[in-house]
Structures are given as structure tokens and as C-alpha cells.
Write a structure and sequence with these properties.
Elements lengths: L1 H9 L12 H4 L7 E8 L3 E6 L2 E6 H4 L10 E4 L5 E4 L5 E4 L9 E5 L3 E7 L6 H13 L3 E7 L7 H9 L7 E3 L9 H5 L6 E5 L6 H7 L25 E4 L5 E4 L12 H7 L1 H7 L16 H7 L5 H46 L2
Parallel strand pairs: 8-9, 8-11, 9-10, 11-13
Antiparallel strand pairs: 1-2, 1-4, 2-3, 4-5, 6-7, 12-13
Helix pairs in contact: 4-8
The structure holds guanosine-5'-triphosphate, magnesium ion and zinc ion.
Magnesium ion binds next to helix 7.
């Protein structure tokens, strides 16, 4: 509750707008409906905040909270129960994870997704591309925050590489521990705007959160050997900032695998795909085919070869994950079918 008290103290405006309420939510409920926004999701309860302040809802007794995510809006019953989760404007949904493919909503109703990466061994264009695809696929505007700018004299090089991945993507290079260096980011924050931080463990998401005004997020040292973090943040939670914006700090992501993100891919790889439209063959694989506009662009330096490789790798990975997902669904269908058959034969035996 100490955490909840700190958050309560930080909220300066009590109106729903300060919690991120928009016309999209207003259109879904009656004018005097009771609503609250989800600030943290725990195993047994959730923390919500509405015009009346902070509250905790027990998941078992409330019901109706399956799949609830930080950032969701809830319509409450007169008795304080949960009537329903309002339709989301958008959701950062992780559709696949390593061997176990599943869908997981990381943050809901997000205005700005800050993809955090560091100027050290963690920096990877491939990884950044994945995060950008995820953001674009979820219809959220991405921004890149390059932390640990103080640890390199190559900041401009890192920033240029990051910016080259998606036309117009803002890149903020900072020492995330410095309130002064994050000043421009803070100045851009608006009342009721929801920001979410995602990235690997140890890149400085919580450090950045603290610098932009979140109340004392826990941070932890990284391993010297490989710059990997130790998964310090374990709970997804949202915090009001002094600027009036809301910040969702996420735990570090181990490995971001993608499936079913074709829309995101088509946006992030628009450069490769628009060249591909000019290939002589419609089904060109951009290998040895004659008249390949993609190969031509690579040969004369207009397109970095790694962009094509990235696109092809992501497509292969998507296809593999889609297969795993489909075989899981099939297995679930088979089990459901067997179960129904068993129940049916039991009832038949009992003569029901
Ligand atoms: N030098 C330097 N250190 C930083 C910077 N940002 C973060 N750190 C340090 O990096 C370590 C990890 O920072 P965290 O904020 O805990 O990282 P995180 O992304 O929240 O990690 P998880 O919660 O594990 O996902 C801490 O020791 C921070 O002090 C930076 O810009 N410069
Ligand atoms: Mg953290
Ligand atoms: Zn081609």
C-alpha cells in the first residue's frame, strides 16, 4: 500500500482525463457510469484508480477480469464489482514467446511506446526492428530511447543506425539517470497521455521512469560480462507523472518473437517492400531471379543488405510460430472434442 499511497500523492488532477480517459472510452458507457483504470495487475488482485481514488479489486470475487491488463478501463457495478473491461483503443500484445507461443497483453490504451535500448552490447538493429514491428502492428506510435549515452563516444552513430530503421521514428539519446538529459522528453509529455516503456532487462527503463518523475522505481545493476540485466522489475504497473502523463513500466523482455505481425512488417519494411513491387516477377524471392529491383538497390547501395535479410528472417520466424500456434490450437480443439465426447457418453450411460 505504500506504493499506492505514493501514487495517490502524485496525482494532482482528479478528473478522468488525468487518468487517460478519451472519447473512445466515453462512447462505450452511459454518462454516469462508474469507471476506473487498471494501474497494476497482481496474481490475486488488481489496483485501479477512478475519480474516487485508488482501490484494490480482488480478482476471485470480482470476476470478469480474465485477460485484464495494465492500462485497461473497467466499467464498475454500483456495488463496486466489475461489469466489464472496456474495448481497448489499442494494446501492446506480444503474440509469441520462444518455444511457448501465446498471446499476452503487455499494456493497454497506450499513446506513446518508448522502446528502450542501450549504447552497449545490448544494442541490436534486429532487436529494434522487432520492437518497431510490434509497435506498428499494434497501431501505437513508437519512439526509441537510447540510454547509456554517457558510456560511449559513438552516440551519433548509434542514433543514426536506430533512426534508419523506420522513417520519422524519433530517437532520444540520453543518460537515463540524468533529469537534465531527459528534460526534452519530459517537456513533450501531455496531461493524461499514456506512455509505456519496453525493452530488454537492464537497459534502464525504470531508471528512465525515475528521471521523468515516477516515484522510486526499483533499479538493479547489470552483468559486466555481457551487459545483461537481472530482471529487476517484476510487476507491470502504471504511475502518474508530475507532468500529468501516465507511465507504464514493464519488466524486461527476454526474447521478442513475432507471429501474425504482417501489418507491422509491411510498415517497418516499407522500403524493401516498395522496391519488391518493381521486381520483374511478382513472386520474386530476391535471390538470383532476373530483374530483381531489391538486389539492384542492394548492389548500388540504396538498400542495406541486412534489411532484406531481416525481413526474410522475420517472415520465416513468423511462419514457424504460426505453425506452432496452429498445432497448439488443434491440440486444444482435440482435447475439447474428447472431453465433450466423454461427457456425452457418461450422460448416455446414465440415461440422461
Ligand atoms: N551509465 C548509465 N547507467 C544507466 C543508464 N540507465 C540505466 N543505467 C543503469 O543500468 C542498470 C539497469 O537499470 P534499470 O533501470 O534497472 O533497467 P531496467 O530496464 O528497468 O531493467 P529490468 O527492470 O530488469 O527490465 C542500473 O544499474 C542503472 O543505474 C544510463 O543512461 N547510463
Ligand atoms: Mg525495471
Ligand atoms: Zn526481387
Amino acid at each position: 500500500m505504500a506504493l499506492a499511497a505514493t501514487r495517490a500523492a502524485q496525482l494532482t488532477t482528479t478528473g478522468l482525463e488525468s487518468l487517460g480517459w478519451t472519447d473512445a472510452e466515453a462512447a462505450q458507457v452511459a454518462a454516469h457510469a462508474h469507471v476506473a483504470r487498471v494501474f497494476a495487475v497482481h496474481r490475486s488482485d488488481i489496483e485501479v484508480r477512478g475519480p474516487q481514488g485508488l482501490d484494490r479489486i480482488d480478482r476471485a470475487t470480482a470476476g470478469g477480469l480474465d485477460g485484464v491488463a495494465v492500462g485497461d478501463w473497467l466499467e464498475l457495478t454500483d456495488g463496486g464489482g466489475v461489469a466489464r473491461i472496456l474495448e481497448r483503443r489499442n494494446a501492446i500484445t506480444r503474440k509469441a514467446a520462444g518455444e511457448h507461443v501465446h498471446r499476452q497483453v503487455l499494456s493497454a490504451n497506450v499513446d506513446r511506446l518508448l522502446i528502450v535500448t542501450s549504447c552497449n552490447q545490448e544494442f541490436s538493429l534486429r532487436r529494434l526492428e522487432r520492437y518497431l514491428v510490434l509497435a506498428c502492428d499494434c497501431d501505437v506510435t513508437p519512439e526509441i530511447v537510447l540510454t547509456k549515452a554517457d558510456l560511449t563516444d559513438q552516440v551519433a552513430g548509434y542514433a543514426d543506425q536506430a533512426a534508419s530503421l523506420l522513417a520519422g521514428v524519433p530517437v532520444h539519446a540520453v543518460d537515463a539517470r540524468s533529469a537534465e538529459q531527459v528534460g526534452a522528453l519530459v517537456a513533450s509529455l501531455r496531461l493524461g497521455e499514456t506512455l509505456a516503456l519496453i525493452g530488454s532487462s537492464g537497459v534502464g527503463k525504470s531508471t528512465l521512469g525515475n528521471a521523468i518523475g515516477a516515484p522510486n522505481l526499483e533499479t538493479g545493476a547489470i552483468r559486466k560480462l555481457d551487459d545483461k540485466g537481472r530482471h529487476t522489475t517484476t510487476v507491470r504497473a502504471m504511475f502518474p507523472l508530475p507532468s500529468g502523463a501516465l507511465l507504464i513500466d514493464n519488466p524486461g523482455i527476454r526474447e521478442l518473437q513475432l507471429t501474425d505481425c504482417e501489418r507491422g512488417i509491411s510498415r517497418v519494411f516499407a522500403d524493401v517492400l516498395s522496391l519488391a513491387e518493381r521486381c520483374q516477377f511478382q513472386d520474386c524471392q530476391h535471390g538470383a531471379e532476373p530483374g530483381c529491383a531489391v538486389r539492384e538497390a542492394i548492389a548500388d547501395g540504396r538498400l542495406p543488405a541486412r534489411r532484406l535479410e531481416s525481413l526474410q528472417d522475420l517472415r520465416t520466424e513468423q511462419a514457424r510460430n504460426a505453425e506452432i500456434l496452429e498445432s497448439k490450437r488443434q491440440r486444444a480443439r482435440d482435447i475439447g472434442h474428447k472431453y465433450r465426447k466423454l461427457n456425452w457418453s457418461k450422460r448416455a450411460k446414465r440415461g440422461q
